[in-house]
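Exercise 7.
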Amino acid sequence: MLSQQENETRQRFINEYLQDKTDKYDSRDVERLQKDDALAGCYLQWRLQNVDDALKMIDESFQWRKEFRVNDLTECSIPRWMFETGAVYLHGYDKEGNKLFWFKVKLHVKDAKTVVDKKRYVAFWLERYAKREPGMPLTVVFDMTDSGLSNIDMDFVKYIINCFKVYYPKFLSKMILYEMPWIMSAAWRIVKTWLGPEAISKLKFVGKNEVQEYIDAEHLPTHMGGTDTFKYSYPPLPDDDFQTPMCENGPIVSEDETESKEDAESESKDTLDSSQNEEHIKKSEKVNFLEESLKLDECDKVDSTSRTKTAKKPVTVFKGPLLHISPAEELHFGSKDCERKSLIVLNNVTKNLVAFKVRTTAPEKYRVKPSNSSFEPGTSVDIVVSLHGGCEASPQDRFLVMAAEMDQSTGAGTPDLSQFWKEVPKTKVMEHRLRCHVTESSKPMSLLLDENPLHSNIKNNQEDLHSKIIRLLASNKRCEEQIDECLWFQKMLMGLVSLLMAITCSALYLLYTDRSRL
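Solution. The predicted structure, written as tokens, is:
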């Protein structure tokens, strides 16, 4: 049913919106709509499968993308001072593994001269994230610490709302408003009118005591009661803190030294393996660079073939210009022995050598073998990612696969490969990010409870009850204020009536005395 609606949406968009209006949209967006099933599906899901509403949404979104030249937004196209302010940036994750999109409200000052640049700046971050983490929602955090009326910009807030309501559908996980001053409450009542029913339920008003219900302390700054010592600075842009993963005997201190050491070990190992297994390699036509070394468990003592057997072969494939990477999006981990390893398969689809290296945001938790090497055109390499010791995988963990094409003359020796990564231009490096998916058996009980429909309903009911109580208290306060005003007017009226009666009595008395004299 959904597939039919997607086809109908695409066909009607061509027939009803593209006729004689080819310059209305960016051709790249139109092409993506025709090829990307997920894009059409997002608009339909956000509009509850209503094709007419989805088409209006696509039309508005595509016009905005062309107006702001979203497809051409780069770091160089945004004024440098906007990056330096640190008012908007991506950093850290919430408890569900969603990226945090920070808005430091106190750093925002309303200025009509820079409003367009600020809107393009927000679009730059959203588009950057959409390309790196397709399909993954964001958690927006409005940090209102030390903010006031001078920081309120309703037009800019409405634009941010529209970004998630129209331009990037299904991207909003939740919107957390931290320490909102009471003086801004009236403004946010207006904001609620711009949100749909589904979006309103995503608003979370929190203080220092409640924010850790949604974000762990390790991803919260110290002024929010967290332990994250991150301080925004530019350049470079804050991004996922990908580091070289754990080596055989512990964490790597110097990446360059480690890469040289790993390259040397890889070269000597490959030479030994090739001399002993040359015929086997020719038959399989598959390069295996898994290193032989001391392992922490019995499985690590066997050869490379048996090691890859403990990890399940991935099914999905990401097709990049240099490599086909499997899995396409997620590495699966669990608490069982067979679930503590995951496999990444790289296929070289070029006509040259391809160098690769793997990084992770949690180098102390994972061992990646091989993490840095190169392989021949038309061959593949299996990379085993295993959890270290008693560590547990987390949805916040990320892996970055980097690859670059090498000239035929460039060897895979220690100095060449190490020097290659230092000299290769960033524009020639292919990057692909992988997320961690934690199976049910290893998820914390609190997370399982959150996913339980009954617990979710109870939690939602509690939130609804809490919001109703807050509204009731606010209404009660307004009633009390109105009663006080009524009592004040009543007292004033009684005073005026008493004064009028006194004046009347005095007038009557004077009139009476005058007549008596006559």
